[in-house]
Design a protein that fits this description.
Elements (H helix, E strand, L loop, with lengths): L2 H14 L6 H12 L13 H15 L4 H5 L1 E4 L2 E4 L12 H10 L5 E5 L5 H9 L4 E6 L2 H13 L6 E5 L14 E6 L14 H4 L4 H4 L5 H15 E10 L5 H6 L6 E8 L5 E8 L7
Parallel strand pairs: 3-4, 3-6, 4-5, 6-7
Antiparallel strand pairs: 1-2, 7-9, 8-9
Helix pairs in contact: 1-2, 1-3, 2-3, 5-6
The chain binds S-adenosylmethionine.
Length: about 280
Amino acid sequence: MNAAGMVRWGGAVLDGAGLGPGRREAWLLLRALSGIDAWLRPEVPVPPEAEAAYRAAVARRAAREPFAYVVGRRFFRGIELAVDRRALIPRPETEGLVEQACALLPRGGLAVDLCTGSGAVALAIAAERPDARVVATDLSDAALALAAANARRLGLDGRVRLCRGDLWDAVPPEARGSVDVCACNPPYVEAGEWSDLDPEVRDFEPREALVATEGWRSLYGRIARGGEVWLRAGGWLLCESAPAQAAPVAALLRGPAWDAADVMADAGGAPRIVRGRRALPPEPR
Ligand SMILES: C[S@@+](CC[C@H](N)C(=O)[O-])C[C@H]1O[C@@H](n2cnc3c(N)ncnc32)[C@H](O)[C@@H]1O
């Protein structure tokens, strides 16, 4: 079958699965899996191996597997990451966390990415700031294996240290009190919201990447308390949150240990990134 026929077939399958209009995704799948752009070269025959891969991919997508898992990759802030079911698919709104971290990180500074998943935030910071030292942590061995593979593929494995463990506990002890910027996108979906999530998310992405078993309030509370210990005076804590959580998370960053806390909106205008600065010591009299 030629490329246009493949896209027509795939589009109809995706329409039938309720994912319509399916033509655009079918075209994207064919291009991602075979390199053939069916709009530019509709008559080109699709080689049998590419056709088999494409048909399998359309079936997976029709079963509501996310597009990024089906093609196995995702662009995030200028880097291409391998993605699979071991870790959350990096979201565009999280790019704001990287933008802020890079803007606030001093030259040669130390950045920590708690809850790194695929390594997206840590690797994007390292790619954008070749002067930075970066530590990334996660509880999940599977996610860390994916992050390590991404670091190697991007040639960043010498610059990003991956550590397994619970939040700040995983950060090497010598970093205590000297972290310049911590960027964190923790699991923040409420357990009660699970059944309302899209099937793409609920049935395919790791639950522990989305829902904090202890509850999001407790998790952000521990992140903030750890920030008081691990950040240097004047260092920054940046947390992504759901819009409805931004104000209560910002409230955790007010008090004597912090001297600034605010919330920044994402590209869609929703409150998304909570930012707090570790208090500077008082001026000598
Ligand atoms: C929302 S995902 C974020 C992944 C990645 N930072 C991103 O933005 O694409 C949250 C990640 O936190 C990890 N995680 C959950 N609880 C944790 C904990 N207590 N300590 C460290 N990592 C944790 C999960 O395994 C998951 O990989």
